[in-house]
Amino acid sequence: AGPPKKRYSVTLLPGDGIGPEVISVAKDVLSLAASLEGIALQFEEMRVGGAAIDADGVPLPEETLSVARQSDAVLLGAIGGYKWDSNVRELKPETGLLKLRAGLGVFANLRPATVLPQLVDSSTLKREVAEGVDIMVVRELTGGIYFGNPRGFGKNDNGEDIGFNTEVYAASEIDRIAHIAFETARKRRGRLCSVDKANVLEASVLWRKRVTNVASEYPDVQLSHMYIDNAAMQLVRDPKQFDTIVTNNIFGDILSDEASMITGSIGMLPSASLGESGPGLFEPIHGSAPDIAGQDKANPLATVLSAAMLLRYGLGEENAAKRIENAVLETLDKGFRTGDIFSTGKVLVGCRRMGEEVLKSVDSQI
Ligand code: ATP
Ligand code: MG
């Protein structure tokens, strides 16, 4: 098929628990899908989390961050485990992940909640409601009440103890997440719902105003607004009404977890975290699953689908992304299931076998 058209470097961060197992599968799928599209990927594997604490004494070695920053995209497995439980913040595996996000400047978190036809019975909702759900939640990740100042503890005028936080957004922070949300909606079905609490919160009034402004640059995307309380309700009443949702840090934290439960299968859900420029970070939403680590039981599909997001949102390689997504659907159509998504009549397989089946399907995609 001639010489490769494009070259990219991808940093692999297997991490802890089932991380190395699912990353190994995703790496093979990613390189095959890319090469079939004439793309050459160069992988560099680095340590993070508990694995890095053991080897380097810190959860995010400087070298890991610098290699990640210089690459075109970062694929992460999972971080953490009982072994590294610690009260010292600097020695927590999870601190490595927070530092990695900060170091890469990723302020937009994209989490799809897709009910696949093959897994509709995993949904917590009735079949009629769940069937066909395909939502993307775009959550602002580095601002709002989780980071706003002033924050802290004190006393009120009555001398009573108080705790306080501040919901604050600058116009530029809203504009940049809005741009990512509109771009995302444009790659999907062209509808964006911005979720806020503009009837109560000043930060939400500004949010709504800036998002509405940015909309004028995207005439092909249809924008609507919804209050968070209504959105939380609509998400379980009639989730099919949503395409792309954009919202602030705290509302996005809650809505994205709510949306993921609609699908009912944690082992299937990918995520992307994007910045203005520089590499994006792609990872499954599940954790390190220490209870099944090292047993070849993990579902690798959340990481495989994260690799598809890496191609689409990280490298702009839509065809290779589609190849992976179609292969996952085909593998499920053939009846292959890991334990977490198994039902009677299906073929129970382990992590590696599931990977081999996906590879076969990637290869047979036209
Ligand atoms: P963390 O703090 O790292 O997020 P957690 O305990 O909150 O960990 P997970 O590690 O995601 O959450 O595990 C939750 C449950 O889901 C566990 O029983 C685990 O075995 C299961 N699980 C998570 N990911 C997978 C997967 N990819 N395949 C199969 N089962 C999984
Ligand atoms: Mg967790």
UniProtKB/TrEMBL annotation:
PROSITE patterns (alphabetical): IDH_IMDH
Swiss-Prot/TrEMBL keywords: Amino-acid biosynthesis, Branched-chain amino acid biosynthesis, Leucine biosynthesis, Magnesium, Manganese, Metal-binding, NAD, Oxidoreductase
Its EC number(s): 1.1.1.85
Protein's GO biological process: L-leucine biosynthetic process
Pathway(s) this gene product operates in, as recorded in its UniProt entry: Amino-acid biosynthesis; L-leucine biosynthesis; L-leucine from 3-methyl-2-oxobutanoate: step 3/4
Cofactor: Mg(2+); Mn(2+)
EC class: oxidoreductase
Domain of life: Eukaryota
Cofactor note: Binds 1 Mg(2+) or Mn(2+) ion per subunit.
Isopropylmalate dehydrogenase-like domain residues: 9-358
Protein purpose: Catalyzes the oxidation of 3-carboxy-2-hydroxy-4-methylpentanoate (3-isopropylmalate) to 3-carboxy-4-methyl-2-oxopentanoate. The product decarboxylates to 4-methyl-2 oxopentanoate.
Protein name per its UniProtKB record: 3-isopropylmalate dehydrogenase
Organism from which the protein derives: Acorus calamus
Taxonomic lineage from the root: Eukaryota, Viridiplantae, Streptophyta, Embryophyta, Tracheophyta
